[in-house]
Amino acid sequence: MNNIGIIGAGTMGVGIAQVAATAGCKVVLFDANAPQIDKALSGLEKTLQKLVDKAKISQEKATEIRNNIVKGEALQDLKDSDLVIEAIIENKDIKTKVFTELETYVSDDCIIGSNTSSISITSLGAELKKPERFIGIHFFNPAPLMPLVEVIPSLLTEKSLPEKIYNLMKDWGKIPVIAKDIPGFIVNRIARPYYGEGLRIVEENIATPEQVDVAMRTLGNFKMGPFELMDLIGVDVNFAVTTTVYKDYFYDPKYKPSLLQQRMAEAKLHGRKTGKGFYDYAEGAEKPVAEKNDALYQEIFLRIISMLINEAVEAKRLGIANDEDIELAMQKGVNYPKGLLGWGKEIGYSKISETLQNLYGEYQEERYRQSPLLRKL
Predict the structure, then answer these.
(1) Which of 68, 86, 115, 150 is catalytic?
(2) Of the residues 81, 115, 118, 138, which is catalytic?
(3) SS (H, E, C) the chain
(4) What is the mean pLDDT of the chain?
(5) What gap in Å lies between CA 289 and CA 209, rounded to an integer?
(6) List 81, 114, 115, 117, catalytic entry
């Protein structure tokens, strides 16, 4: 698979194009908004120059990568692709429209992939004339730096295709994992409590955002606390993913979105990209200092980590992925310091079970129900 088409020249699209071009593939980058392609390629040139300046790559390699990517003037320019990866807006109707048009141009052998983070792969592929050629290929942002790629076959995907894409991603220098087509796949499903439980703790005035962040960084060795991470991802984007997962799980209380996060999204307090989110990113703005409280930090950490481990155990029980891929996905997709199944063993599954039982007793909410497998471990 040497000829790659990319639809969407946003951060993710150009990032995937860079990954493919670095691996020696010929890439056609297309976006319905033509000026966006020029903007993306101009940004890529600056990125490559920075890599050269830091001696990460040679000038020759930078030139080769850039020359491997050409601008597509129309969707039809992707007609010779062996693989097309779509990375556009998270909207099923818009994606489906693009795929059905694309299918009229590409060969029958061309594989069509979507970088969606939360839309059902089966529902997207079902609209195609040849749904067996369709598969989820979910990169993490920024694509050139984040090693994980979730490979997600739909119910209609040809059986040998996941392995082909798995091997291709390895050739591209990525760490692929194969996941079932369930809402959120592996990472976005298991990671939901990291944000959701942090938000609930703040909504209930148990702690401040900075206290939650400090607790998770100091006691859990997470690189970023949930509020710092939401500001980086985009509060609006994080809220949209949570809302999609909640709806797609038929409104399971475990994934219930936060009213606080909704209000933040409505106020356009989206984090770093708007200059303000849970923290102020204006020049000279001081980051609030968390009031130290060791007992509270311990309570926060145990509550959030128990919810995360419970999700990982449930993913194992449901066969969403194998144990190794569940552990890899969380470490390589969202930079968790340890695999959650191993972490549960380290803390003690009985301690995790007891924490969840206490939360369930306090709140009387299905949100805190345990995976049937948890008590058996």
Answers:
(1) 150
(2) 138
(3) CCEEEEECCCHHHHHHHHHHHHCCCEEEEECCCHHHHHHHHHHHHHHHHHHHHCCCCCHHHHHHHHHCEEECCCHHHHCCCCEEEECCCCCHHHHHHHHHHHCCCCCCCCEEEECCCCCCHHHHHCCCCCHHHEEEEEECCCCCCCCEEEEEECCCCCCCHHHHHHHHHHHCCCEEEECCCCCCCCHHHHCHHHHHHHHHHHHCCCCCHHHHHHHHHHHHCCCCCHHHHHHHHCHHHHHHHHHHHHHHCCCCHHHCCCHHHHHHHHCCCCEHHHCECCCECCCCCCCCCCCCCHHHHHHHHHHHHHHHHHHHHHHHHCCCCCHHHHHHHHHHHCCCCCCHHHHHHHHCHHHHHHHHHHHHHHHCCHHHCCCCCHHHC
(4) 96
(5) 10
(6) 117
pLDDT at residue 287, as a whole number: 87
Does 117 qualify as catalytic in the annotation?
yes
> Does residue 160 carry a catalytic annotation?
no
For the stretch 335-377, pLDDT in tens is: 999 999 999 999 999 999 999 999 999 999 999 999 999 999 9
In whole angstroms, what is the distance from residue 93 CA to residue 183 CA? 17
Residue type at 23 in one-letter notation: A
User: Given 81, 154, 188, 310, which residue is catalytic?
Assistant: 188
Mean pLDDT over residues 34-53, rounded? Answer: 95
Is residue 270 annotated as part of the catalytic site, yes or no?
no
Q: Dump pLDDT digits (tens) for 164-198.
A: 999 999 999 999 999 999 999 999 999 999 999 99
Q: Mean per-residue pLDDT for 298-311?
A: 98
* 33 in active site: no
Q: Is the pLDDT of residue 333 over 90?
A: yes
25: Cα within 13 Å, side-chain hemisphere: 26
Give residue 65's pLDDT band: very low, low, confident or very high (50, 70, 90): very high
